[in-house]
Amino acid sequence: MVIDADAIVHEVQAPGGAAFQPIVDRFGPGVVTADGTLDRPAVAAIVFNDPAALADINAITHPIVGQVIFDRLAAQADTDHVVVLDVPLLVETGRDNTAGVMVVDCPVEVAVARAVARGPASEEDVRKRIAAQATREERLARADFVIDNSGDRGHLEAEVDRAWAWIQDLAQQ
Fold first, then answer.
1. Residue 46, beta-bridge partner list
2. pTM of the predicted model, to two decimals?
3. What is the average per-residue pLDDT within 77-101?
């Protein structure tokens, strides 16, 4: 089972989600689109240019996401399921009482180029987001297992197979 923190962020920041109104209250109606959803690029333009605003949105969103993750983990407590927590900001939040930490890694320049190619963020926006996160070195220092994502898709698929073997070994311990 995969619990995806980014997907949970989107859930709780959607209209009616637990973080939606607190975000609007903090950042104003200008962060809401005409259809009533959160204007994510507008929020990003604010928070990735203002450390206090970034701290505020994190203070709103992280506890709510943490509770949802806790609830979903609790629902798996009596199963034999392997649960993978996909938490991009695990190092930044310092919340990891897990069996192991896996980091998907590639050089920063590769990450920037891929993010810009996916769009719609500019290179400057991508670099601001990266600067607001733990460094590559900090993530690698915390890793128990590293997936090398600097190659092509075939290389990544082989890395994922290697990672699954590692996860299965952890589950046996």
1. none
2. 0.78
3. 80
